[in-house]
Amino acid sequence: MTFRMDAAVAARGFEVSLGLGAGETLAVLGPNGAGKSTLLAVVAGLLRPDTGRAEVDGRILFDLPSASRNGTAGWTAPHRRGTALLAQEPLLFPHLSALENVAFGPRSAGVPKRAAREAALRWLAEVDAEDLASRRPGELSGGQAQRVAVARALAAGPDVLLLDEPMAALDIHAAPLLRRLLKRVLAGRRAIIVTHDVLDAYMLADRVIVMEDGRITEEGPTREVLRRPRSSFAAGLAGLNLVTGSATAAGIRSAEGLEFTGQHDVPLIPGQAGVAAFPPSAVSVFLSEAHGSPRNSFPVTITDLESHGDQIRIRAGELSADVTPAASGDLGLVPGLGVYFVVKAAAVSIYPA
Amino acid sequence: MAAVGALFVLLPLAAMVAKVNWPQFLPLVTSEASLTALGLSLRTAAASTLLCVLLGVPLALVLARGRFRGQSLLRSFVLLPLVLPPVVGGIALLYTFGRQGLLGRSLEVAGIQIAFSTTAVVLAQTFVALPFLVVSLEGALRSAGSRYEALAATLGARPTTVLRRVTVPLVLPGLASGTVLSFARSLGEFGATLTFAGSLQGVTRTLPLEIYLQRETDADAAVALSLLLVAVAVIVVGLSYRRSAPARIRGSAGPGTGA
User: Fold this and answer.
1) Same domain for A316 and A210
2) Domains in chain B: how many in total?
3) Chain A residues contacting B, CB < 8 Å?
4) In terms of CB atoms within 10 Å, which end of chain B has fewer, N or C?
5) A109 vs B156: CB contact, 8 Å cut-off?
6) Among positive and negative, which fits the CA dihedral A222, A223, A226, A231?
7) Model confidence pLDDT, tens digit, residues B13-41
8) What is the complex's ipTM, to 2 decimals?
9) Pairing assessment for the beta strands A311-316 and A241-247 based on DSSP bridges
10) What confidence tens digit (pLDDT) does each residue in A134-183 have?
């Protein structure tokens, strides 16, 4: 472990202990108010914990309560931490151009103007935003601005990159683009990403922690946590149907040989690893194989029925479908019954993993 | 009611313009006494505006960003001159910097006399104008929020760099309008100046004092000079609005296409 932190903030009931290897990306999941943003603020030095200790590559970020009387020892100021923050909103400095925004970190580190501009241009190219260099933040769309913000955070050369729900403020078209960009730039980079989207955890993180009420309730490799959720929150997240497999021309073929066609905004390379995601609400249940337009129809055996709001959630192994109690009764759904799950291609999102 | 409100402001101005003795206007405003008073007003107002910026910017920063005991009390005291009759301010200054004043005695020993000098004019104007700058700037700082500053710090910017490259540029429109307002307030200062600095031609007799004096002997001159002061005020207000308008348009520029 090259990043290690134990911290407690009494006023917020926050007590967390976590570690991060070099080049490892950690996703932090949890309900609102669970302390996810507090975690990032403590790492970044924007919030002072009551007690705790954190270090990155042997450098102390904080070691509290401080041994010295004035409290300066055992506390590294935010600007010396190397923990660049990417927030939900881009927060580009409105008075600076995109290029000047990206050059802000290098300039603050004392890099000469010309070299900082060159570095900024390289980072803008890295996020496919060179053509936006001279634009003012007010002239950028939400997605463009967030891409520039990614470049700005990376240009600061952080030891730990902190991302606070970076996709949350983006529309449904911009979010997948940014997710793919993050997947590229986060590869091999030490980062902590707070998210409420299980797909982010799945695609971007090596490991995931689930936070509830200021504490870590679950921790482990992303796939494992989502496959066998123990916390109620992770279980709720795991409600999203995720099927891994290898890409075909139109979708994903699972290990069991099931074909899923769906929507994808990048050309799929057959054979490449991928994931198909669809919500249980998009799944219909039939007793016999459905004929007609929906192409995703596959036989499953019901393992469990549980109430889920005013719906009944039908579980079949790792997949689930939501149906109305009336429909469930009409079909006579019980555990052990063999049925067909049918989901329209339009409701399935395909991502290269 | 809005029309009545607008009339209430415009009508007296129109009445005054109607009273102006136009054939004599130029000679009246270019008389030696008038020019001296105008020059003194502009010089002292510029000096007190500078002083307001020097003292007001740190104050606004502390009030908007700091968190300490007695903060709201400090804010109340800084804003006090806004609601205080200027004459009272003048008396307070007199008992601070006057010959028998709190600091005046020590200053006198050091050979410095402030009361009834041009310096006193500047101090009186600063006293009444400072709240305008602090209020505008504190408001701008609060609405800008501290999120940009926190983010700049995580990017490696030292506190001084954050102040120079993020905070100040973000609140520049607020600082500008605060500066203009305090300049205008300084220019119109009367009560505190008269009490603390007196009315010596060329030394402490600013334009408002000159107008008040002329009103007794030469009403035409007083009206002409009043119009001059109105013109200066209109220019100042116009400048501050022109400054903030383009910023607003730029800020609300629509999103570009695509992502």
Assistant:
1) no
2) 1
3) 44-46, 77-85, 87, 91, 93-96, 104-105, 107-109, 135-136, 138-144, 152-153, 156, 162, 170-171, 173-174, 177-178
4) N
5) yes
6) negative
7) 999 988 888 888 888 888 888 899 999 99
8) 0.75
9) unpaired
10) 999 999 999 999 999 999 999 999 999 999 999 888 887 788 788 888 98
